[in-house]
Each structure stands twice: as structure tokens, then as C-alpha cells.
Design a protein that fits this description.
By secondary structure, the protein is α/β, with parallel strands linked by helices. The protein has eleven helices and 15 strands.
Amino acid sequence: MKKFLVLVTVGLVCSAFAFAGGGKDTNTISIGYVGPLSGGVAHYGTESRNGALLAIEEINKAGGILGKQIAFKDEDDEGDAAKVINAFNRLVSQNKASFVIGSSTSGPTIAISDRAQAQKIILITPSGTNEAITQAGDYIFRACFIDPFQGIAGANFAYDTIGARKAAIFFDNGNDYCVGLADSFRKQFKAKGGEIAADESYQTGEVDFNAQLTKIRSVNPDIIFLPDYYQTVSLIAKQVRQLGMTIPLLGGDGWDGLIDNAGDEALNGFFSTGFSAESTAANVQTFVKAYQARFGYTPDTFSALGYDCVLLLRDAIVKAGSADPSVVKGALAEVSGNYITGNIRYDANRDPIKGAVILEIVKKDGKLTTAYKTTVNP
């Protein structure tokens, strides 16, 4: 309920930032945001939007970029690859956005990446990790690491830190995000000398996993790699524990939000992500305190990635000395610096080179929370 009240307030604030015709006003720079603000993965979109909004408020308060204020408008795509297109079109045609942050998951982001490239709009996704996203062209960027690195980081953590030698993989074979992480984990774990003792899959929307999990239990793995979004992970984790398996569960950044949607079945769970609020870095602690003061709770990875998207755009515009996307894209590709989610520099595909944080789900004062475990670098 606390978050609901905060989000209502944020929605009103966002409207206040939506200056009509912002792109036509030479005194403003129009930045749009599109992501799932409702629906099954609303946590991702809402947190990224909040992080972006905080950064924009801070920048505008400090005088803007190149002496111009940022005009901001958000759109809800509900995590839907069809609805995201209309949302993107509104940002570009009605709000004249030259820069768009979004979407939160890979499918919707891929659906608009070609459009952004064709219209010469800089699109930067906070958390779309599929490799195909940036292949659309040189106007497309991301703030997060890509799927293969998450899978590799997960395999290294499982083998080196947990000491797993037999792993089971359980994934949604109709979800590109899940397939991508599963593929890279599978290859890396085997390359390190580990055995994939079970390799099971399910369909999107499936809720009864008993048959597959029974097969997994029969091979007695040391760990289950479960790359999916938090709602599905919660369902699967419950059934894993009901079958008597107490082994560690491991996933990717799709697990963010799990502690608000699961119970003790999530304990002994680990996941890769791009940020830890426990970091002692000065810029991280400044961000965490500002976010808590603004929204009333601690930010997560999606909040930090949304914030970083705005900072990356700001730095590129300043470096370019212009808000023209055709000039900014070159400056953005050359950005290299310390951001909230770590040191970021781009490779030739405009994918950031950065480390992955591994968090453990623990219980503190009777509530689930996350604890920093380690960092896996490229």
C-alpha cells in the first residue's frame, strides 16, 4: 500500500514534467520513458521510471543540460510487445521526444528498436538484456549487461563460489530472456568442468511444474539455474521446496522484485543484478539516500538503471555540446565513467562493459531482504 500511494504521487509529478510540445521548444530537451507501469512486470517499469524521474528532477534543479530544462513524459506499455509500439509512437509524435528510455524487458524493447533507429531517436533500455536489441543500429544503447554475461556470471558463481558440480537448468523455452540466460549458463558451466544433470523447460503461463521438477529431483543436482521473472520464480520455488529440495536456486536480474512476492521458499536463492544498495561507494549512497527521501523506500537495480540512463544521456549531450541525436549518439558511444551501477563504457555494439553483483535472499527481522554476496567482473 505504501508503494501504491507513492506511485500515484509520482504519476502526478510525471504529468507536471510533460510540457506540451517539449521537443519543439528550444528551451527544453524532451526525454520520453516507455515501460511496464502496470501488468505482470510493473515492478521493473515503475522502478526504472522512478529512477529516471529522480535524475531529471535533480538535473533540472541544478540548471538543466546546456542551460535547457528536461521535459519528461512516461508511457505504459504493460510489458506487451504490441502495446509498446503505440506508446513509443505517442512519445515521438505527440511529445516530440528525441531520446527514449525503455523498455524494461527484451521483447517490447526489440519491438521498438528498429523504429527508433529508422526515426533517428536515441533509445536506451535500462534492463533489456537480449543481444538482438542493439543490433538494430547505432541509435540503440542499453545501461545493463547482456544475457550471455549474466549466464556466464551465474555459472562462474555456481561453480567457483557455491562449489556446484552438477546443475539443473529449468527455463521458459518461449521467452527470449530465459532462453538466452540458459544457453550461456549451460555453455559456461560445462566449459568449467561442470555437468548439466537436467535440462528441463516449460511454457509461458504454465503453473504446474511438478513433472519437470520431479525429473530434476531424481538426478540430485547441486543447484537449479532458474532464469525467469519474479512471479514465475516464486511459483516454481514453492514447488521445488514442496518436493523436498533444499538446494540453492540461482537466477538473473528478472528476480528483482521476488522478495516482495515470495515467502521462505526463496531462501537459499541467489541472483545476478547490476546494483546493490549496500555498496559503500559515495555516489551510490548519495543516490540511495535521495531515492529514499523522494519515494520512501530503498531503490533496487531497476531504479538505479533508470537513473543511470538519464545520467548517460546527460553526459553524452554535454560532451556533444548539442541535443541533436545524430551528434549525441557518437558521444554516447564514447562515454566512459563511474555511474550508480558501476563503471560503464561501451563496446562496439553499444553494450556496456560492467560487472554483475550477486545478491543472496535472506531473512532479517522476520522479512525477506537481499544481502550482497560477491561481484563477478567481465
